[in-house]
Amino acid sequence: MLNTILIDGKVHAAALRRQVADAVSEVKKHHGITPGLAVVLVGEDPASQVYVRSKGKQTVEAGMLSFEHRLPATIAESEVLDLVGDLNDDPAVDGILVQFPVPPQISQHKVINSIDPAKDVDGLHPANAGRLWSGEAALVPCTPYGCIYLLHQELGKLDGAHAVVIGRSNLVGKPLAGLLLQENCTVTIAHSRTRDLAEVARRADILVAAVGRPEMVKGGWIRPGATVIDVGMNRIALPDGKTRLVGDVAFAEAQGIARAITPVPGGVGLMTVASLLRNTLVAGCRRRNLPVPSV
Ligand code: NAP
């Protein structure tokens, strides 16, 4: 039986944040610029408020400027788009992130499309999605970037590995598949219409679950020795009335089968903000035609 390795998101996220902070101080020293991230929060969703606070704090800790814009839940779509337009024009702002979900009167699609692709640190603008798939320099979505970072730390080169990604969202599954292809993996994208999903999953050297269904991936779906990246974040109710966060993979069943696995919580989730900081630094350098630090 294998001794399954736990891929510790806390340790790797701290390492990535440190790399970004070091690169930011180099950019400041040599070019006199301080990258800035603007985060827009519409409404008062408690989870979103926590995320936005944490993003602001970590941006400042990395030595960058943080601009927070809090708008009321009832605001008109046109006012949000106007704010994004102002941030597009603001030279102090290198990255723009609108915290999703937004209230129903605001089109997420229109918001994404209104962001200058050069400042699109969430990597969701169609221009960045297109660049990713055509192999050009793109800003890539933060969670997929975090997954690739973890895989590099764990496996080094990914060349030739068969990666199976379960999930095909624009936020996670599709961009992650594009990144794995760039890493010379053989990539299978599975989704809700995939036949014999367990059998498809069992072919993976690298198995990624980005589905949003608690513990859907069973131990028997994992090929012995595979590396498992669990992106899922599902809050489930317990009999005592409390709740617990679980992933898309039956974590206990994966023990002794997977070579390595990310836990939930404590895995991929922690990489997302660190990747956002990295994207802000990259956007700041690219916009000014400065060399992009290799973080
Ligand atoms: P999403 O937009 O709902 O996409 C889910 C994907 O899973 C879809 O492509 C869907 O297929 C597929 N799917 C659903 N049921 C399935 C089934 N029974 N068998 C196979 N595939 C199935 O979700 P998302 O935004 O990608 O997020 C996925 C999970 O990752 C969620 O738990 C979310 O909370 C988590 N997440 C975590 C982070 C983080 O750690 N920071 C960031 C983002 C998301 P179809 O396309 O066919 O419908």
Low-confidence stretches: none
Named CATH architecture of the largest domain: 3-Layer(aba) Sandwich
Residues in helix, %: 25-40%
Mean of all residue-level pLDDT scores: 97
SS class: alpha/beta
Most strands sheet: 6 strands, parallel
Strand order of the largest sheet: 1-11-8-7-5-6
Number of helices: 10
The CATH class assignment of the largest domain is Alpha Beta
Fourth-tier CATH superfamily name of the largest domain: NAD(P)-binding Rossmann-like Domain
List how many beta strands DSSP finds: 11
Helix and strand run: EHEHEHEHHHEHEHEEEEHEH
Q: How many domains comprise the coordinates?
A: 2
Intertermini distance? 36 Å
What spatial form do the alpha-carbon principal axes imply? globular
User: Rg, please?
Assistant: 19 Å
Structure write-up:
The longest helix is centred in the N-terminal third of the chain and has 23 residues. It is built from 10 helices and 11 strands. Helix 2 packs across helix 10 and helix 6 crosses helix 7. It is globular, with a radius of gyration of 19 Å. The protein is of the alpha/beta class and 295 residues long. The protein has a 6-stranded parallel β-sheet with strand order 1-11-8-7-5-6. A 3-stranded parallel β-sheet has the order 3-2-4, sandwiched between helices. It folds into 2 domains: 85 residues, Leucine Dehydrogenase, chain A, domain 1 (Rossmann fold), CATH 3.40.50; 131 residues, NAD(P)-binding Rossmann-like Domain (Rossmann fold). Helix content is 40%, strand content 16%. Bound molecules: NADP nicotinamide-adenine-dinucleotide phosphate.
